[in-house]
């Protein structure tokens, strides 16, 4: 008998399994037996949660899951879904970490939500929070000492279409932050973004970064920024509509922990001994990733499609891992294995999934960089 194959669990796969799972109970709490959905971004999963913001300009709903994780759902009928609605919906993950939604159902109203997010602005009696690819507002007690860049756990009540914080706990800091909004101004050295309810954020443009020629003021855009020394510095920018239509290329910052990590999927446009440049889809700025001396990367060819995990180290986006997925337009074999079913066993080194079709269990090696502690059998 052949020994079972072992596959490596990638960060994007873990994000689906950890932050989404499949929520099957009517109350919206996680079922006792977690359902793992592991595979490419095109895999469909179901999610339940509470709407905490809707954005008609982006056609997005921001949904808080019972765990406190936040996801952004791209759905054309957002104006019909009120803040506080408890929804369940089938979704497909896109490369930017947001989800394309279908068959959305509203089944209740929620009055309390839990959130895990990063503070991106403070103004008067409110804070702007970033999580799951969106920015949203929570009314906030100005007497607390929360600062921009803090990662917080929030409990809030939902009243009259808005969120009112009842508790906010600082649990860490984050260097890499996702922003989304309307591009209101562009200069040679900075851009200005209007986020959510008119709050304005200025982001510095590093000399090494070239804005896409298709980006213009008035566009809905997504940004990944590095926050340090009280300054936002642009890592990449993408037209939001382009991101909404792309399941294979994009940039996805981590909302699951405070390790300032990012996943990049796209085409290699330049490769050298110390630097890799990846183009993460149409309408996006190319990203330079430094290759540390501790990692040996096999020679890459311009046009190779890659999945990169990088971390911000000393203000420099630094390679952590790389997976070559094949050249653009090639018919080469996929390097991604997927399984949908129930978690049979899980520990810090191995995740075993029993497929829904009752086939042989599939084992995934868990890299040391991934935390699977929130997945239960």
Describe this structure in words.
With 377 residues, the chain is mainly beta. The model is unreliable at 1-8, 10-41 and 328-336 (pLDDT under 50). It has a domain at 113-173: OB fold (Dihydrolipoamide Acetyltransferase, E2P), CATH 2.40.50.140. It has 2 helices and 26 strands. It is globular, with a radius of gyration of 20 Å. The longest helix has 9 residues, at 11-19. Helices cover 4% and strands 53% of the residues. Strands 18, 19, 20, 21, 22 and 23 form a 6-stranded antiparallel β-sheet that branches. It has a 5-stranded mixed β-sheet with strand order 1-26-25-24-2, covered by helices on one side. Strands 3-4-5-7-6 form a 5-stranded mixed beta barrel.
Q: In terms of topology, how is this protein built?
A:
Blueprint lengths: L5 E3 L2 H9 L15 E4 L5 E12 L4 E5 L5 E5 L10 E9 L5 E11 L2 E12 L2 E6 L2 E6 L10 E10 L2 E12 L2 E11 L3 E6 L3 E6 L15 E9 L2 E9 H5 L5 E4 L7 E11 L3 E5 L7 E4 L13 E10 L2 E12 L11 E8 L3 E6 L6 E4 L12
Parallel strand pairs: 1-26, 5-7, 15-17
Antiparallel strand pairs: 2-24, 3-4, 3-6, 4-5, 6-7, 8-9, 8-11, 9-10, 11-12, 13-14, 13-16, 14-15, 16-17, 18-19, 19-20, 19-22, 20-21, 22-23, 24-25, 25-26
Task: Pick out its properties.
OB fold (Dihydrolipoamide Acetyltransferase, E2P); 5-stranded mixed beta sheet; 4% helix; 53% strand
**Architecture of the domain at 113-173, according to CATH?**
Beta Barrel
CATH superfamily of the domain at 113-173: Nucleic acid-binding proteins
Q: How would you state the average pLDDT, rounded?
A: 81
Q: What fraction, in percent, of the residue positions are helical?
A: under 10%
CATH class of the domain at 113-173: Mainly Beta
N-to-C SSE string, H for helix and E for strand: EHEEEEEEEEEEEEEEEEHEEEEEEEEE
Largest sheet: 6 strands, antiparallel
| CATH fold call of the domain at 113-173 | OB fold (Dihydrolipoamide Acetyltransferase, E2P)
